Amino acid sequence: MNVQEMILTLQKFWGEQNCLILQPYDVEKGAGTMNPMTFLRSIGPEPWNVAYVEPSRRPSDGRYGENPNRLYQHHQFQVVMKPSPDNIQELYLKSLQELGIKPEEHDIRFVEDNWEAPTLAAWGLGWEVWLDGMEITQFTYFQQVGGLDASPVSVEITYGIERLASYIQDKENVYDLEWVNGFTYGDVFLQNEYEQSKYAFEVADPKMLFDLFATYEKEAGRALKENLVIPSYDYVLKCSHVFNLLDAQGAISVTERAGYISRVRNLARGCAKQYYHIREELGFPMLKVKEDTNHE
Amino acid sequence: MSNRTLLLEIGLEEMPARFVTNAMNQLKQRVEKWFESHRLSYSKVEAYSTPRRLAVVVDGLVEKQEDMEEEAKGPSKKIAIDDAGEWSKAAQGFARGQGATVNDLYFKELKGEEYVFLKKHTSGEAVQSLLPELKEVILSIPFPKNMKWGTNDLRFVRPVKWIVALFGEEVVPFDIAGIHTNRVTYGHRFLGSKVEVKEADHYVQTLLKEFVIVDPLERKKAIRTQIERMAEEENWSIFIDEDLLEEVNNLVEYPTALYGSFDERFLTVPDDVLITSMREHQRYFPVKNGAGELLPYFVTVRNGDHRHLENVQKGNEKVLRARLADSEFFYQEDLRKNFASLFDRLEAIVYHEELGSVADKVRRVKDLAVKLADKAGATEVEKQQTERAARLSKVDLVTHMVNEFPELEGRMGEEYALKAGEHVNVAQAIREHYLPKQSGDPLPQSSISAYVAVADKLDTLVTSFGIGNIPTGSQDPHGLRRQTAGILQIFLSEAWSFDLFTCIEEAIDLAAERDLLKRSKQEIIRDLTDFVKLRYKSILQDQGIRYDVVDAILKTQLGRVTIVVRKGKFLMEQLSTPSFKNDVEAFSRVTNIAKKAEDKKAMVDKGLFQEKQEKELQTLAEEKQDKLLTLLNESRIEEAYDELKSLEPAIHDYFDHVMVMADDPKVKQNRLSQMVLVAKTITSFADFQTIVFHS
């Protein structure tokens, strides 16, 4: 199964489970969790089921396209369901079967792995899912998001597309993966990997990045004061990405690190709180969506 | 039928492996306690667990609670009988409240006063009606971390999926988080299916058919047997780490061990790296040959049966290949750097907000380590090596490998130092200066390692105390207790005769010079003395010294670790000599009576002596005091004790002829002062009074 088929299969499967199939968000981010469709929507009582692919940037994992496993940018297939359904583990295992993985022919395990995103003031409990010893999915019940207690609780399932594909296609090197017949992963992303790595490690100007951080931070605060949560949150994401670039360059000392993280966290908390208020003032409109609505 | 079996099983989404065993034991204990408090007898409770379930099977549980006879106490007779001699309202109320009538009341005397009493009979209830309370027992299981899920308000370790509660064949009704009890349990996720448990007795067998071994000990045995058989067949040596086995056991319901291999080229990476990578990331058991050399194989345990093992093997090999390729990359990257020059990067790593960078700490450790080497009489070469080792001791913290595997700190430092051409003593000390990391660990094997190890720990200790980070109760985040015990153990094994407290003072001075401490030297030393004393206790007891002897010597000077321990051992030997009891009695007479002195600092006035025994004891005590101290300082324990013992006849003679508590207050005070003086000599050896003799 090529990568494109995998994505289509997962989209179809989760669509059938009443998840909205959305598109990636257009601001750089380190993980699908940071997409406002997860971060903001998991706040408050309104039900929410969604699935999407998220290209996720981790500058310090960049390897100039030379490492067979590590990438500046990888793809997550993200599923969020609020409240978490009782049969979520079974649904997940079924999705693996759709991808052609027969559980009884492998060793699939749920191994404790608790998730924490300090920049988002978010944490949850759950597992990493092992397929024959390989971590293919992060499975998390959110307990806090933006410093707010999750109620009801959202469950987040994050498939590592490249990991899973390298298993399904039995490839040693991520660049050899077949994206679609005739196109490899390398055809699509190798140049991106090289250039982004080179930029992140060697070319990016720390002074400019520090300035950008300060600018974005300020703008995030300004937008929030105007009660504009989503634009404010866009700048929080930008702060986070700029921070990751600085971190990749080793431009932030250990002492300063905690300070930058807490600055981003404070902004994220502010957005979370404000988002809740705005939804509350609107009377949590999504509560009125009938539970049996099928998004297909 | 008078007894039945009770089954309670809580089905969960996979619990964290590290919680499972304790949760199972807690469930068992809490169920037993519940039976006891409800007067329910049973023959035995067996507890079971897998990652997805916690269960107890209770054999021979009675059908009915035992009846209870109690005596209830009411008001006093004065209040119970009114002026007319009739039962008062209070008495009537008491009887009614107990479900009885005044005809049941009788009087009984209690501490000189009469009260009304009545006998109360409570019939035992049917167990069936009590069992739903087990819900609370389940909810009371403590977990280190709980969570919420869905729309439930309950916090529990992981979402509850099903509950089986059977008393014999009957379902015990209750519900948790919307899950009602039932007789339906679930087998292995992929090999088993949903199944009814007909009777509580059938539990273990029913699940075995569904590919679940519910008894964790059975599972563990199966894993061990499979691995041992594999080792035998392949002629391998597979070390089964107990912690790893425990974890693996709690990750599977139906274990099957299998092995895979990796490319031999990875064997150029240090063994510890390969082993750590296999164990920490993948929970594999490493494989060695008979000579103890690592082989390019690994053993893993699958949650399932033998079918399609080749898929599992292939998948695991693929994962490990990527892991080891990473490790190899990190190792080679690290080797490309100049190891010693990485020191500069320690400047940017914060050791502690108030105590500066790791580089700052290393500079203090270096100064202190050289001082220790000096005291221990090290040669110039040794001192240079100590200085070098201290300087490089933390450099590996900035390597890729330690970043990836923090537990390899020290070990990687040694490896990289050797590759960089550092002296083998220096490299060894880099690894060993962390020792002992926990109790039972080996101690540093060379004296150079020992200097750096003690300097590092002393600095941690005094700087923590110096900024007020003092362990309390179970709070000891920096492991200061363990480190202090390590310091004492090293002093002992190196047989250092210099004073620990002098070293502590020097460590304080080094930190104070840099203006790091918030508390005064006196305060730090005062707190540290108590702290060190408590560590001594366990060290001495580990040496087989009895608790009362430990108390006796801990009241004396504690700086010279070897002397303290030797004294303890000496006194333990003395305990088996018949005369020792008499010695102790003589010494105790002196120390006991000395306590009565009001002014403990008053000088002895020889002019007030009336008996010759007073003068004799005085002369002898003055003579022995200095001698004793000198001998103790030279660690000549036996001779010191002989000196003390030579006071004994004079002490006896003294008490035979001298009345300390004389009528004349001046004489009395003078004699007490004399006792204080002699007592001081005695207690410079030990506080003999605390030693217990069993008749």
From TrEMBL, chain A:
It is found in: Cytoplasm. Pfam families: tRNA-synt_2e (PF02091). Keywords: Aminoacyl-tRNA synthetase, ATP-binding, Cytoplasm, Ligase, Nucleotide-binding, Protein biosynthesis. Its main location: cytoplasm. GO terms for biological process: glycyl-tRNA aminoacylation. It comes from the Bacteria. It is an enzyme of class 6 (ligase). It catalyses: tRNA(Gly) + glycine + ATP = glycyl-tRNA(Gly) + AMP + diphosphate. The keyword Amino-acid biosynthesis does not apply. Its EC number is 6.1.1.14. The keyword S-adenosyl-L-methionine does not apply. GO terms for cellular component: cytosol. One of its GO terms (molecular function) is transferase activity. NCBIfam families: glyQ (TIGR00388), PRK09348.1 (NF006827). Belongs to the class-II aminoacyl-tRNA synthetase family. Tetramer of two alpha and two beta subunits. This is Glycine--tRNA ligase alpha subunit. It comes from Salipaludibacillus keqinensis. The lineage of its organism: Bacteria, Bacillati, Bacillota, Bacilli, Bacillales.
Automatic annotation (TrEMBL), chain B:
It is found in: Cytoplasm. GO terms for molecular function: arginine-tRNA ligase activity; ATP binding; glycine-tRNA ligase activity. Keywords: Aminoacyl-tRNA synthetase, ATP-binding, Cytoplasm, Ligase, Nucleotide-binding, Protein biosynthesis. The keyword Protein biosynthesis applies. One of its GO terms (cellular component) is cytosol. Its EC number is 6.1.1.14. GO terms for biological process: arginyl-tRNA aminoacylation; glycyl-tRNA aminoacylation. It comes from the Bacteria. The keyword Cell inner membrane does not apply. InterPro entries: DALR_anticod-bd, Gly-tRNA-synth_bsu, Gly-tRNA-synth_heterodimer. It catalyses: tRNA(Gly) + glycine + ATP = glycyl-tRNA(Gly) + AMP + diphosphate. It is an enzyme of class 6 (ligase). Residues 586-683 form the DALR anticodon binding domain. Belongs to the class-II aminoacyl-tRNA synthetase family. NCBIfam families: glyS. Tetramer of two alpha and two beta subunits. This is Glycine--tRNA ligase beta subunit. The gene is glyS.
